[in-house]
Design goal:
It is built from five helices and ten strands; from the N terminus they run ααβββαββαβββββα. With 209 residues, the chain is α+β, with helices and mostly antiparallel strands.
Length: 209
């Protein structure tokens, strides 16, 4: 082997290693969701005055005339609070966005925060793993064990929660369900106790996948 052949071989190996080293890795959807959750929570107002409107009655907490339909499912939401793509909002200069397989939506104002995440999970029989993901460590505390209920033809796990994510919205609820090959988790924060149950009921009344 001549020195020129050896140099050519070393150059080819160097090019191959450089190409392998620069190859982009597929982002972990769980990491993306956790980063998006943290960024969304940081956007919740902390200095706005405590809302002065009358609390919703527990039998009908909100009038959910809104409907979000995309990514192969539909879900209800308060008409005055439109859902937005959290991943796309946090990465406006990149193609990162929600997909059919996984994503995160949020809607919030000074008196309500709602979040919905989903993940492709073939074979999953319960959504606990995704409910654990949507709950913020050290901030969200489920009150008791998860309750399994049938809500509008969906087997739903849910629990009230207390949260310190925002001083204005200390009460809330978390819920999760499986539809097809995807798991869904829903969470809401509210200023008054007992107002999130109606939001969940009305949202699931319009849920389709």
């Amino acid at each position: 082997m001549t020195k020129y052949t050896l140099r050519a071989g070393l150059l080819a190996v160097s090019v191959l290693l450089a190409a392998c080293g620069s190859k982009a890795t597929t982002p972990d959807p769980n990491v993306q969701i956790r980063q998006a959750v943290a960024a969304t929570l940081a956007a919740i107002p902390t200095v706005a005055p405590y809302p002065t409107f009358a609390p919703y009655p527990t039998s009908l907490p909100a009038n959910l005339n809104g409907l979000f339909c995309e990514y192969g499912f539909c879900v209800g939401h308060p008409p005055e609070m439109a859902f937005y793509d959290v991943i796309a909002k946090q990465h406006p200069d990149s193609p990162a966005s929600n997909t059919f397989e996984n994503g995160i939506l949020a809607a919030h104002n000074n008196s309500l925060f709602i979040q919905l995440i989903w993940q492709h999970a073939p074979g999953a029989t319960d959504p606990i793993f995704l409910m654990d993901l949507i709950l913020e460590d050290g901030l969200d505390i489920p009150l008791g064990s998860y309750n399994l209920r049938l809500i509008h033809d969906l087997n739903v796990l849910s629990s009230p929660i207390n949260t310190t994510a925002s001083p204005l919205l200390p009460f809330g609820a978390v819920a999760g369900w499986v539809c097809g090959d995807r798991a869904f988790a829903w969470k809401a924060y509210a200023p008054q106790d007992g107002t999130t149950e109606g939001l969940l009921q009305e949202a699931l009344a319009k849920f389709r996948c």
